[in-house]
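May I ask you to comment on the folded chain given beneath this request?
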Amino acid sequence: MANQLPQTPETETLTRVQVLIAMGVTALFLLMVAKIWQRVGGVPLLPLDWMGNAPFWGIGLGLGISATSAIIYRLWPAYRQSANLYLDLVIKPLAWPDLVWLGLLPGLSEELLFRGVMLPALGFDLTGLALSSLCFGVLHLSSPKNWPYMLWAMAIGAVLGLSALITGNLLVPLAAHIVTNLISGCVWKWHSDQKPNPSV
């Protein structure tokens, strides 16, 4: 008799429109927080310099983060489960063209807040790096079961912040973040689309 009861999913399924609206609203909120903090706190925005090798460093860093994520995904079952839970919620409802927004909206808004404003405001040093990375990780905690994904986001926040500290250029972590989101979104979407749909 217990087998006849309907099972409720752990997380509520979102529609494509809900995910796109959530991404847009979150991006706007993070941008507003960054702008208010910048204005009220008198925090200068980390420079965004397109000159030199900065775009290539950012793309290379994004490729390195994506490769590392793929390795950790294969080796750490708790991270794999946590990443699948998060990506299933966010990416599964999206169409392929929507992945451009997945790369751009979080990449731009999160980098402007966490590396562009928060890192200089908290101290453009290792203390600021640790605190901004912690905040970045907490932003990616969608549920208590998702702690491995939060730890990964904290580590990535530290890498992106370190790239900002070393180069003094927001373009490097910005490009890396966008590239990482695009690659992970496309790879996960492709693998998800290859799985046969279970019959109901």
Q: What stands out?
A: Residues 1-9 have pLDDT under 50 and may be disordered. The first helix runs from residue 16 to 41. The CA atoms of residues 72 and 124 lie 29 Å apart. The chain has seven helices and no strands.
